[in-house]
Amino acid sequence: MAKLIAENKTIECKLIIFDKNGTLINQHQVLLELAKARKKSVQKHVSEKATEMWEKIVGVDLENEKIDHNGPLATSPRREEALIAAAAFYLSGFPWIEAKQVAQKAYDHADYSMKPPYGSVLLEGIKETLEHLKQRGLKLAIASTDTHRRTLESVKSLKMDSLIDEIVGSDDVAYGKPSPDMILEALRKTESKPDEAVMVGDSLLDIQMGRNARVKACIGVLTGFTPREILEQLADVVVSSVAELHVL
Fold it and tell me: Which residues, 6+ apart, have CB-to-CB distance to 95 below 8 Å?
């Protein structure tokens, strides 16, 4: 197994599983592009009042380009957020069945309208670090709250597909983070064991997922929106960025 160095900690492993947004990719930019596309689509299907309620309930203030990074749009799989959107439409006067149908249609249209890489911008030093890890024999996977298709298309557009061995999206499993399902699926796909794997992420949900899957170590990074003191509550080690990781 390779000897992964994170700060002053050495971790022997064969597989590193990365979160995507906030860990490899600038999270705010991705969320902003997603929110804009969904609002534009929602406006075509419901009233302005319902649209305003949708913004509030999913944690968006697009007039000021603000995203609640603890809100539904930032943390929930699409299927959960669509139900939350349906609740906003129901509260604005739609019958519940119709509210769910309208939410599904609006979100489908928004997803169709967006093009790769969906606002994705690699954080500084990420590609070079992944190349280094790959050259040292490590398997690399992504476990993302985003869908499999969008994650794959983003990876391809950013010319990283040769570096990533497997992708697991929220639609590949029954339960999202912090359930261990995504990590367990990544382990299955890469024919790896929990004690051979490391989870790297920018949020407590990522670290909790790693703990629930019983991976060898969980590494927190500060390129998202979770402060060090929070990540340190569960992570084995916290580093400023994925770019700090290297192999002996």
Answer: none
